[in-house]
Amino acid sequence: MKKLFYKTLIWVSRILGLWVFRLFAWIVSTGYFCFFPRRVATGVRFYAALFPNRGWRYHLCCTWRQYHSFTNLFLDRALLQDPGDLVYTSEGLEHLQKAVKNGTGGIILMSHMGNWEVAAHLLKKKLPKIRLLLYMGIK
Hints:
Layout: H1 2-16, H2 18-35, H3 37-50, H4 56-80, H5 93-102, H6 116-126
Helix pairs in contact: 1-2, 2-4, 3-4
């Protein structure tokens, strides 16, 4: 059911514009924020530990922004399905091309603005023969 809704939302957004996707994403993230207070409390505690000198309103505001910025992940995924090219910049791509050509390996330390899924997708598009192993860290 979720998959059908998501595909329908993407289809409607392509016709009417991204504002439709953003509106639904805002409604869903607001719903999660309002109807799951334990999760919100976890976020507030996290920001209280991160910013101990700030008040509870600031911690709540940070949690609100986190909930709403998370929806950008889904928008990024939707934009990747669009046949148009995304504009991006990269440095050191020639080193990866050389590694692929020579059949050697390498380690990529990523520090970028945005979604790692988008970065991996764009890298795979640029270098189709590259083998990627994404390591997200220890939980």
